[in-house]
Please model this.
Amino acid sequence: MVSVLISVDRTFHINDPANQEDKRKPEAGLTDHPHSAMTEEFQGANFSHTKFTFVGFPEISKYRRLLFLPFFLSYLVILIGNSLILFVIKNTKSLHNPMYILVSALALVDIAVPTAIIPAMLLSFLFDLNEITLVGCLMQMFFIHFLSSVESTILLAMALDRLVAICNPLRYTAIMNTSTFLKLLLFTLIRSGIIMSTLVGLASPLSFCGSNIIHHCYCDHMALVSLACNSTARNSAMGVAVIVCFVGIDISVIFLSYVKILYVVLRAAAGEQRSKALNTCGTHLIVMMCFYFVGSVTFLSRNLSIPIPVDVNTFLGITYIVFPACINPIIYGVRTKEIRNALLKMFKTRVNVVTIKVTTVKW
Model:
């Protein structure tokens, strides 16, 4: 709006006969002009937006309210599915072992990350509440990326846990003990905390003197950084470092672990057991690949100038968080024999209790 006012004002002075002296001395006239001083102030390094507006799915903006239903249902599935897994594991003593502690931690993260994004998205779709402060944006960025990195560490720990359980079962109890979990917790907090704090710390001093429109539904790192006026080379380099650290290292170790697991199982198992092992490991790897691959594409799309349409990039950025959170309760819950049996047992017990109460009332 400032630039429009300036151009109109300049046109007025050029056409006004009373300002012919300004035409002969354009430099003096422009220097003394109040709007020119205002332009310099707005374009200076001291100016920076403190509020931003989310514009998710701009190409289908007319149908934004229709997006409320699928994301609301997805959020319900996430809450119900992961809460059910936590409830079953908490109330079944036989499931109080390292593997299911990791499944519980995964369920907690799968509730926390979508909760940082989806409720605000739903309000945006219904009531156009799209604004966020810079501080709020940086806090959301840290929270989302920190918990996503924690999820990556949990998936890594689960793969290593299965590797030890299958390839070295006699030493499983000695290896997967309280000390190991404390070391894992410390490693997770140090790695994720330092890297994500650096990521946000490099973004916080940037000046945003141009557009304040974030083409996303939440504060993704590069979606915000791409709006900065000053150099973002360090931010881009840090973004690549995050992918190398969490995707390059974690997915490589996970993949090698599952290859080793399959090798051991297929050597010892019969036909039906081989098929089950392939199905289980294959399903786990597909879900993990979705999490890592889609997350990497959305995270690096602006760094590497990948030509992805805005709506597609926004959808991928939400999918890599929402899809695993929806499907993990099935992959690591219902499809796991111990959890499935515990769930059925709890359900049958409650049905029997209700039946006894009804029978007592009849008598």
